[in-house]
Specification:
Length: 389
């Protein structure tokens, strides 16, 4: 390290406050302020907010990970007030992963501030949280100060730019209750003919096994029935694109005498179709109101129906590469879809080398689409996240 640099250790007291040393560094960024910090809570945002106007200067920016305990509200404020200079890291998917660490994190805690002549760096364990900066946690950091053109600061800026280039400049949409719905996959002889006979007067009784999906079946919850030609669905394999669909609302839920609540069987009027589960995860459609002994039944009312449909994912994509892979999957199976240009092209990191002595602690990741699109469960979320390729 250059002899022109001065170094201070923060703090000999392991529970020493980090707020004042960090704010000293932030205030120095009158010409440039850039930082990458893994996590930011509401309190952490409040602490640094007086200095955030500096990230709007040329070459300045902020990068924060979307992973918990980062506050969604704090990220929204950051993106709202500093568009173009706020970035969020969505996690990195590699071919191999360590058990318990499915997504690669942006875990840096690095702050660079310059007044044009001298630069200061705050580097340590502190996240932008009150627990870290107020002395509740045991934390450690160093402050390095020196001429702005020192090679040390060039390396720091290179690292920060790398974090930015591997992050997104658009905050993914927040999931809401309306994004969640019950998805039921059904095979019928002729899906097109089937939906032509559906009317708004129809009611469908849904009787799954057990009560595991009771939260999904509360009245006014959403449902989608995806219709496939008979023989096209196979256990434990991703489903193809549905030929037709029915969307609607759950209008009633009955917990019968075989449920843990020991209720009574309700009489659903105007039931035209019954859906039962046999075996688990596989559904059968029967005309009429079929009596069932299942502990729970729900009445489903169709509101709209049609042909075709996108893909439904078992879970929300957890990283940018999953967004891309999902979008590519839709392109492959729906030729009518057109690609959309990205607002921000993120550079992919190369696969890290795993040392021979720890290879046993890593697992090879399954195919992304196979893990996102699955028939092992039918109570899943509708994918409404912004697509960027």
């Amino acid at each position: 390290m250059s002899s022109n640099l001065t170094i201070r250790f923060i703090h000999p007291d392991a529970n020493g406050r980090g707020r004042e040393p960090l704010e000293e560094v932030l205030a120095h960024g009158t010409e440039k302020l850039a930082f990458a910090c893994a996590f930011m809570t509401d309190a952490g945002y409040e602490i640094i907010s007086p200095h955030l106007a500096l990230i709007d200067k040329p070459g300045s920016f902020a990068v924060v990970s979307i992973q918990q305990p980062t506050s969604r509200e704090a990220l929204e404020e950051l993106f709202k007030k500093h568009p173009g200079n706020a970035f969020v890291h969505l996690g990195t998917i590699f071919d191999y992963y360590e058990a318990g660490s499915y997504v690669g994190l942006m875990h840096s805690k690095l702050f660079l501030a310059s007044d044009g002549k001298t630069s200061k760096v705050f580097c340590g364990s502190h996240n932008l949280t009150a627990s870290a900066l107020q002395g509740f946690n045991m934390e450690a950091a160093t402050i390095i100060e020196g001429p702005a053109d020192d090679p040390f600061f060039v390396d720091v800026e290179t690292h920060l730019n790398d974090c930015r280039e591997k992050s997104a400049d658009i905050l993914p949409e927040r999931e809401t209750a309306q994004d969640k719905r019950l998805i039921i996959e059904l095979e019928v002889d002729d899906p097109i003919d089937f939906i032509e006979k559906v009317t708004r007067l129809h009611f469908i009784k849904f009787s799954p096994k057990g009560t595991k999906d009771q939260p999904a079946l509360t009245p006014d919850s959403l449902f989608t029935i995806l219709l496939f030609k008979r023989g096209t669905l196979h256990p434990d394999e991703p489903a193809p694109v549905a030929i037709a669909y029915i969307n609607g609302l759950v209008t009633a839920l009955n917990l019968g005498p075989n449920s843990p609540q020991k209720g009574v069987n309700a009489v659903f009027d105007k039931i035209h179709l019954t859906i039962t589960e046999n075996p688990p995860g596989s559904f059968v459609l029967t005309p009429g109101n079929l009596p069932t002994a299942e502990p729970m039944s729900a009445a489903l009312k169709p509101r709209s129906w049609g042909t075709g449909g996108g893909i439904y994912l078992l879970r929300t994509p957890q990283s940018e590469i999953e967004v891309v892979e999902s979008y590519n999957c839709m392109q492959n199976i729906e030729e009518s879809m057109t690609a959309r240009d990205s607002d921000h092209q993120m550079r992919r990191p190369k696969e890290p080398k795993i040392d021979d002595d720890i290879k046993a602690y890593f697992k090879r990741r399954p195919n992304i689409i196979d893990s996102l699109v699955s028939r092992k469960r039918y109570w899943i979320s509708r994918w409404k996240r912004r697509i960027r390729s």
